[in-house]
Amino acid sequence: MAYVIGVDVGGTFTDAVLDDDAGNIVAAKAPSTPPDYSQGVMDVLGVLAEQLGMPVEEMLANTHHIAHGTTSSLNALVMGNVPPVGFLTTAGHRDSIFIMNVEGRYLGGSPDQLQNVLGQSKDHGLIPKRHALEVVERIDRDGTVVVALDEESVRTAVRTLLDADVKAIAVSLLWSFKNPAHEQRIREIVHEIDPEMFVSLSSEVSPRIREFARNSTTVMSAQIGPGLRDYLGSLEGRLRAQGLAGPLLVMQSNGGAIAAAEAPATAISTVGSVLTGGVVGAVSLGEQLGHKNIISTDVGGTTFLVGLVVDGEPVRTSSTIINHHPINVPTLEVHAIGSGGGAIAWLDKGGNLQVGPRSAQSVPGPACYDAGGTEPTNTDANLVLGILPESGLLGGRKALNVEAAREAIRKNIAEPLGLSVEDAAAAIYAIQNAQTGDLLRKTVVETGHDPRDFVLYAFGGAGPAYCGFYSAEVGVKECIVPLGPVASAFSAYGLASSDIVLASELSDPGPMPFDPARAMENFRSLEDQVRAALERQGLDFESIELVRSLDLRYTAQLAEVAVEVPAGELDEAAMVQVMADFEQRYAELFGEGTGFSAAGVQAITFRVRGTGVLPFSPALPQVEPAADPDPSVALHATRKVCLDPRLGYVDTPVYDYRKLRAGHRIAGPAIIEVPTTTVVVPPDMTGTVDHLGNLTITTRN
């Protein structure tokens, strides 16, 4: 028996899903354990082993691999909890990291923040100026050495940084993506002086044109590299000591995994790892259900995440923004707001009720956890409204205190607003549904898609409690709640479903149609890099799939659009077709007539994405069919639940999911209790259990 395990470490809970080669799937959940998240990983593995009825050592000894998604990198960057880092660049260009190409003053800011000019903070620097030093060298745009590297200036700068007690050094020289020789020599010199110093090279982390984005990407990778190396090293050591035989893999932002030993070298590629697991899981489940267009929504303890799958492929982007800095990381496009189950409800200065983005997380947690939390959260409101059972979460293993929840809402929300506790809880629930609906609208409608063409998948510990309302908010007619053995651990299921995905890229600007011979040379070099990197993962693949793409733009414009490039030999006709594909895609994204062909088209960055297909692809097992649609056999209880403040508390049937079978139909309003989550079927909607145990919520006709 061989197992594959996916582990999703969130801010509140750590989820795990185990799949074996016989088609069985087991899921588990345990509280996350900041600051040492590895303990939460070991805890949830213990819960898995308990369900299998075997020691952890035996389970790990039979594990093919573990795919791990972690928030540690992203959280460290967002909160600024990173060690001091040094920065080396070409003489005369040190201040580019502080000038920030001007755009760093506004990137990532919301419209209301940008309009409040006087209230904006301009202190977005990544590192203090004393840690940014210059070295003498110069390479031109063709990769030709104009000024040789002055190694003595390098040694002087390195010693200065070491005396400042930096924990890593980022190196980003002009045009190094065309010729990395000087950067590579600087790393050698650093290691001659201090063999243990972590060094991040822009030619390896971000070989793209544009100085500011390349610099910021390299610096951030250096900031999180040592911590990621230490965390993964410690976790892998604990797993090996417990008998893990297979490799530990780490999820990347691009939707694929990489060996833990390889991840720190390009640490920045892991920043979105925990965000993408759900999208990968949605693709896998969509293949089983025949869905090509999917809105993937994940409401965990801390965040609400939305990603899109269009025509069976997740929507990708070549960059993202963190702390006002552009980051060159190929990633699945996932939008997030701080609106999870642990999101704190509060009153702003105008007395308006807000929910999030601050979260109670797992420590101290919502007030009803009785672990020291005193501020009201979405979870507290759901408990007061009757949505959550007073018997507790996780099948009763996580006790809930309804009086503590009521007191938190009374003190912080109800009394200041002159409301009853029940009305205040209903207001919190309504705001949560409204703001999650707003993010859906931004993600789907504002990118040119019609929500009516999509099926919505809802998961996470809190997602099923809200999905019926927020899917209806944007006009989606069908909402799938993946239940069965994965339930709220669906992101971990996505991790277990992931293959190894690696990407290499290179900026080589030139006018289109690009010289086919030069394009082939670039793509062959990138394909060789990807194949070599896949070989280093230490895994046997069923197959290797390579996909070429090229970023293009209209001359004198900044907006770049990626288009796929066909495999095989390229000729002039192929490059003309690539240019035509770009113009069509540009029109789809920005509107017909917005392109300007007369200005010409430029090729910017060549990219190859390689997928090493693993022999495991977890498929949800089928469930036993029901004798008839009547679900009364699963009726567990009836309790008063408030889903609509206009209706107040209504006697609502509560069903035990474990007794439901394929074909059972549940008329709303209704509650379905699953050991790891709670599903709400709103009034005027119907929930139907499908052949895989998922619940499909549809609006009544």
UniProtKB/TrEMBL annotation:
InterPro entries xrefs: ACX-like_C (IPR049517), ATPase_NBD (IPR043129), Hydant_A_N (IPR008040), Hydantoinase_A (IPR002821), Oxoprolinase-like (IPR045079)
Gene Ontology MF: a single term: 5-oxoprolinase (ATP-hydrolyzing) activity
Annotated Gene Ontology cellular component terms: cytosol
Entry coiled-coil feature ranges: none
Residues covered by the Hydantoinase A/oxoprolinase domain: 214-501
Domain of life: Bacteria
Occurrences of domain Acetophenone carboxylase-like C-terminal (ranges): 521-691
Name the record gives this protein: Hydantoinase
